[in-house]
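Narrative of activities, Objective 1.

The group set out to show that a structural description can be obtained from nothing but a protein's sequence at a throughput compatible with the screening campaign. Below is one input-output pair from the validation batch, recorded exactly as produced.
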Amino acid sequence: MSILQPWNLVFFVGFVIYVGTRGRFAHPTRFNENVERRVDGSEKVLLSAMLVSGLLLPVLYLFTPLLSFANYGLPEWLHWCGLVILLFALWLFWRSHADLGLNWSATLEMRKDHSITRHGVYRRIRHPMYAAIGLFSLAQALLLNNWLAGWCVVFVFAMLYVIRTPREERMLTDHFGKEYQDYMSETGRIFPRLFTRRGSDS
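Output recorded for this entry:
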């Protein structure tokens, strides 16, 4: 499948911006001192699966014919929906990194002088970066006409979110205690909480 086909090219441009954003904000954190790290086998498997489904499969689809057996067609209006989702995902991905600053890490780690980010997009939701990655994954599925290159990442991200988010929140609660519990009561995970209440998560 040629990268020069319009929707493939749209995705590729978005993908370059997405990767560039991660690189831009990851660079200043590379010398940050870690005080805690919770990376086990399941964490490594999940991150590897995201790398394959979110990077390797799209590259194979865009630049080689190896995945052509899994091609299919989508209505044009779904591609336009994918473009809208892509643009919002890219903005949210950038904003999440900018607001999180030096607190960001790719794995389950606590940095030295780590603090709870409450400003910007973190004021209403505590995991906007997961929301951005989930939206980008959905945009990938709607822009690439291939079952493997498009939809695999959606299912892999869903597993990552379900497994990793509770572990991340447990780590933060262990570190910050009641301060993080209060923050959880005031925010939704990936959707804004309209009313502050204790108990259920959005």
